[in-house]
Write a structure and sequence with these properties.
heterodimer; A: alpha/beta; B: mainly alpha; 83% helix
Chain lengths: 211, 228
């Protein structure tokens, strides 16, 4: 990697803000994320954390401010397949099993090298529940079934909205481990959370929604 | 890293929707039962007079199947929006229009195809001459995908609104009328021994246009629906 390439942040927001019916949802935000960095998005309920993540995912139109991905304006085709978004709605079909859900995700987005659906499900702690319809799983197990995508799909930017919700202590440790591995491999992650996050791979950056 | 293949993605989406429809078989049965009941009631209401039933058979079957399809239409994207599957589909590195085309195809296979399969039975109940049945089936094979495609666009347009069922029916009606006129015209012509190829060709031409354009419109509309 050349010095110039290393200097360009993977993700950069300049004076990014969002208005809903002429009411500002969040104040202008400026931040840069380089490869291997993790950012915690902090703010109260209704401060626009989810809105910010949906904007970064490309689901919401950026009207005010700028978003850059690898130095170029963030557009649908410049970052296709590089973003993995996990929102409040988990994107799981409740009539399908975790295995079937994950196969659809892999069919749509491809698999990371060396990862398999079975391996991802075992690692996320759903061994024995692979063929159970998601509708019969507990909230925490559903969350795990959605998080299995993190192990399987190739993506550089992870946008995780409340990834710790509904998880037990082991699950939280598991997510922290996933984030550590991801950033160690040069990925970037934005995480919203109310709970205390104990991230071992260095001090995460903080993005405050209120200035 | 294995690149996602386009054909693989298409098959994944199609397979998922077909499995989901199979797991909810009773939902597929609803439009079929509806069409059966409506057609069965006509002879009771109008009397078992052969000539009268024969004259209205084509129109009754087409209208019944169109209405039966309307029943299942607004469920096309509703659950996907609710559980976040649509967001995942939008974010996948695949052409969204093609993926939605696959969803519409799955919807057609699970709602319209069973109706087409029972159409000869409906025709027999209304004493439609056996020679006309192939024309009726041909007309249905062209009209039902048109309704699915138009419906897909309109469902996508009304996706953000609550209780969109009424609005959907209102918007779909003017789009269905021309298709219905051509299909009924073909069946009536065949019944009178006249050439019926022209209206069928018109339907086929519109279907070709709709197959290309409707998924694109659908994708644009759904992106707008999510953007709020």
């Amino acid at each position: 990697m050349t010095v110039a390439a290393a200097a360009v942040p993977l993700l950069e927001a300049r004076a990014l803000s969002f208005y809903r019916q002429d009411e500002p949802v969040f104040a202008p935000l400026d931040f840069q994320l380089h490869a291997g960095e993790l950012a915690l998005v902090e703010g109260d309920n209704g401060s626009g954390k989810t809105t910010l993540l949906r904007m970064l995912a490309g689901l919401l139109h950026v009207a005010i401010g700028e978003l850059h991905w690898r130095g170029a304006p963030l557009q649908r085709d410049t970052c296709a397949g590089e973003i993995l978004f996990l929102g409040h709605q988990l994107g799981l079909k409740t009539d399908l099993s975790p295995r079937e859900n994950l196969r659809v995700a892999a069919g749509l987005c491809g698999c990371r090298e060396g990862s398999t659906v079975e391996g991802a499900l075992a690692e996320i702690g759903l061994r024995g529940y692979e063929d159970e319809p998601v509708r019969r799983l507990s909230a925490g197990q559903r969350k795990r079934a959605a998080l299995a995508r993190l192990l399987l799909l190739p993506a550089t930017l992870w946008l995780l909205d409340e990834p710790y919700a509904n998880l037990d202590r082991h699950g939280i440790a598991l997510v922290n481990g996933l984030l550590e591995n991801h950033t160690a491999a040069g990925g970037v992650a934005l995480v919203t959370s109310h709970g205390a996050v104990s991230f071992h791979g260095g001090e995460p950056r903080h993005i405050r929604m209120h200035s | 890293m294995s690149r996602p293949r386009l054909s693989g993605a298409c098959i994944a989406v199609l397979r998922r929707d077909l499995i989901l429809a199979w797991r909810r078989r009773s939902d597929i049965a609803m439009p079929v039962l509806y069409a059966l009941i409506v057609t069965m009631l006509f002879p009771f209401a109008l009397g078992p007079e052969d000539t009268l039933l024969q004259r209205i058979a084509g129109g009754v079957i087409l209208v019944t199947i169109l209405l039966a399809m309307l029943l299942a239409l607004d469920a096309m994207f509703a659950s996907d929006i609710e559980d976040g599957s649509l967001e995942q589909l939008v974010l996948a590195p695949q052409p969204l229009a093609l993926m939605l085309g696959m969803k519409i195809l799955a919807h057609w296979l699970t709602t319209a195809l069973p109706l087409i399969v029972i159409a000869p039975l409906l025709a027999a109940m209304l004493h439609l001459p056996a020679a006309v049945i192939p024309v009726l089936l041909l007309a249905l094979l062209l009209v039902t995908p048109l309704i699915s495609l138009f419906g897909g666009v309109l469902v996508a347009l009304t996706a953000g609104t609550r209780r969109s069922g009424m609005l959907l029916a209102l918007m779909l009606l003017p789009l269905c009328v021309p298709a219905l006129i051509f299909a009924a015209g073909a069946v009536a012509a065949a019944q009178q021994g006249l050439p019926w190829l022209a209206p069928i060709s018109w339907l086929a031409a519109v279907l070709v246009l709709a197959v290309v354009l409707a998924p694109l419109a659908c994708a644009a509309a759904l992106r707008i629906a999510l953007d709020c």
